[in-house]
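Cross-posting from the modeling subforum.

Setting up a comparison between two proteins and wanted a second pair of eyes on the formatting. Protein 1 (sequence, then structure tokens):
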Amino acid sequence: MSKKHPTNDDETEIRFLEAIRRRCPDDDRVWRALAELYTRVGRFEEGFYEDKKLADAFPTEPDVWYNLACSHALLGEIDAAFAALHKAIACGYGNIAWMQEDDDLSALWDDPRFQQLVNHFEA
């Protein structure tokens, strides 16, 4: 995912969600919404922070680990991205077709480990 400049609507939504987070700091629905929004607007470090909190809070949830893998990949942390992706798969993530299309993982696509992962599921 390329870094985008947030629109005024994005900024308004971010401020709104951040205000809710201050009032309800333990509400994982807010963490999820902020993680997605931060990442969508190119605030990858902040998206990573929310994804990491989710992985710590929900260690067996496959989509949480998949999103953490995406955050690592967007930050150029390739080994950590693969570790999180393997954890996502171990927890039950299985949308291999999407992994091959999701631009958030594009930093992994040319790595031989990615093709090994795909081949494992296609076998």
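Protein 2 (same layout):
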Amino acid sequence: MNRKHILLVGGTGMLAGLASYLAIEDDVTVIGRNKEKMASVGQRNPETCHPLIVDYCDEELLSNALQRAVQEKGPFDRVIA
């Protein structure tokens, strides 16, 4: 199967269920600020749900984190924000 790489911004709140659903078939990089909430999201699909704990208000940190995610899993096929 050819997995897509999806970026989900704010996937620890009301989008946590979507992160788990998408991670059934695709690689999902989830941006969130809260480590505790992120831990519960990543536990559901640890092989395909990739937490990215970063404050998206800090442009430099966000840019570096996104570049690392692309290097590891390839470019994003879809962004949900």
